[in-house]
Each structure stands twice: as C-alpha cells, then as structure tokens.
C-alpha cells in the first residue's frame, strides 16, 4: 500500500539540492592527503540533466531484508538477515516463511545474505543463496543451491545442498560479503569479505586463502578449468581475483563483465572490474584510513603490483547491492550502475564512459539501501533497512511533470 510517507519521499527525491554539474560529495575527505591517480577517479561531477524520480513504497513492515530477486512471474523473492525467505507479490503482499532454509549464523554482520536464480530457473526452479555458516572451527560464508517449490500458501525449498564454503573458517562477526552473479555461460561469481580483523585481513593477499576474494565456480561448486590459479600449487583454484576487502555489491555490465563495489575502511569504498588473477590491493594498497585515524599499513594508494579502483568514495557511501540499468523508464540511466548506499541513504548512480566514471548522481531514499534491482517494468526497486525497525521495498519511477 502507498501512503503519505511515499508521497513525501517522492517530493524529496524529485528535488535535488545540489547544483547540477558539481560533485555530489562536497564534504571533507577522511584522508585529505590522498590524491586520485586520474581524472574523475573520485568526486565525479553530476550530469547536467537528471531525471525527476518518484518513490513509492510497495512493501512495508518487513523484517530486516538483505537481498531481493524478481521471479519470472513478477513476485519478489527476498532474504531476511535473521534466516528466512519470503515471496512478495507485486501488490506488496508478503507470503509465509519459505520452509527448508538451513540454519544461518545471524550474528554481527552475518545472516542469510544474497540470492540468485539459476540461469535455467524457469525450467529447473533452482535458486542459489549465500549465508554465514557456523562451523566447528569458526564460521564463514557458504553458498547453497535448492529447488524453490511455490505450493500455494506453503512455499518450500527442496534438495538443499551446500555447494561451496569460503575457507578457512574464522571465529569472527564481520565482513562475510557477499553477492552472487551468474555470467552468460552459467558460471557463478561469489564475492566475499576478508573477515575484517587485522590478524586475518592480510590473507586477502594470499591466494591459498579464501578471505577477500572473488570466486568463480560452476553450479556444483567446482572451480572452472580456465580460472587463473587452477594449476598453481597451494592456490585455491576457485579464486578469480584477490586483494579485496568486503564486497556486498556486484553486477554484470552490458558486455557481460563483472563489476563490484567493496566497502572501504574510513574512506576508500571502491568500484572495480575484477579481472582474472589480478590483485586489487587490500590491505597493502588502499584509499582511506583506519577507523582510529591511523594510516593503513604504509599508507600507500598505488603500487605497480596492484590494480587501481575505477572509482572510489571518501567519505564512504557504504555500498550494498548493485544493478546495471537497461530500461525505458529512465533512458538517462541506460548503461549506468545503480548502487545501494547504506551510509549515503541513497541509490548511487554512476555513469560510465570507456570504463571510467564520467558522472555520479544520487537519488535520496531517506533510509539505508541494502539492495537495488531493475524491475521487469523498467522501474528501479530499492530494499531499505532501518536498524531495529525492519525494511521496506521502494519503487522508483519517473515523476510525471
């Protein structure tokens, strides 16, 4: 149901407060001595023309969600951080908890995380989901597959099978990641975190460890034979790229290439296009600083051995969820990435030209944005969260003027 809050939100969204052409971010950086390596690597200008946006709440009073995926029939499949899944009808009606979800470790930043449909979902009804899993020697991010049975009034998961586990386990509460993205050939990219704590985050640089990595696996959880480290002794063959912090945003672009956005520390959120076998720096090379204000490591932002981010944010947007937009509702956004901002409390729109960010704009939502999806109707759907108060699903469409 759409109420007064949605109307007020629509008015706020349709009235940008910053001058067009200037950067969205004008506040001081956390690391003022750090400089970008090329033009528009940070604080890109806003586009001179931005669409008027109307926001409507299509589902309210939800538990704290983490992810959303559209089914072919228009229903929304959502994951709840505490460990349940639900189907939500296009009119916002929330179905019962889906039976058969395995136990998740819903502690700290952990819980039931991302969900993705198998490429052949219409025939197979298979889904894949990630979650933080308690283990005998700690915990970690795991990926499972299951068959979604949508019995009227009693949906359930059958044939639940954990296909992949991030290893090693670690007894921590933070930086589980993660997002799941299928490519056009059915390979599954899995993004994870490096578990945050200083004593283990260094393993993001170790290809014998699964912390701080992008993995590329088949639908049974095995490494793909053309992965970059399959023939390297001591390496985990599932690894695609390494040197990442905590990736909660990932999507394919129009050419089928994977892009990710990872949380930085205090400053230093990064947009990357991870390529096979490449090192993205964390924690040896990074923009941003420790939460204490101290430099991270030697405080360097560039190295010949590591890749530069395509774009970075300081202060952070706190990225979660990501979609590549192709639709008629917002032709101005075609070819842009839409990124959820937890701290930004906005949908962050980055426009690319020649694989660099040309413009950045933000659609204020007024709540933490946990996930973003382009809907089958061309509208944009944002999953919001308010800590301790649950979630909403907000539909963004063009404001008629």
Helix amount, in percent?
under 10%
Give the terminus-to-terminus CA distance: 23 Å
Q: Output mean pLDDT.
A: 94
Order of helices and strands: HEEEEEHEEEEEHEEEEEEEEEEEEE
Q: Provide the CATH architecture.
A: 6 Propeller
How can the largest sheet be summarized?
A: 4 strands, antiparallel
Structural class determined from secondary elements = mainly beta
Strand order of the largest sheet: 1-23-22-21
Fill in the CATH topology: Neuraminidase
Backbone shape: globular
Query: How many individual β-strands?
Result: 23
Let me know the CATH homologous superfamily.
Answer: TolB, C-terminal domain
Q: What is the overall number of helices? A: 3
Structure explained in plain terms:
Residues 64-386 form the Glucose/Sorbosone dehydrogenase domain. Keywords: Signal. Residues 19-48 are annotated as: Disordered. With 401 residues, this protein is mainly beta. It has helices spanning 4-13, 121-124, 198-201, and strands spanning 53-62, 65-70, 76-80, 84-88, 112-117, 126-135, 138-149, 156-165, 180-182, 188-191, 213-217, 239-242, 246-252, 258-263, 269-272, 311-313, 319-324, 336-341, 346-353, 356-364, 368-374, 380-386, 390-398. Strands 1-23-22-21 form a four-stranded antiparallel β-sheet. The protein has a four-stranded antiparallel β-sheet with strand order 5-6-7-8. Strands 9-10-11-12 form a four-stranded antiparallel β-sheet, with no helix packed on it. A hairpin with a 5-residue loop joins strand 2 (65-70) and strand 3 (76-80). The protein starts with a helix and ends with a strand. The model is unreliable at 1-17 (pLDDT under 50).
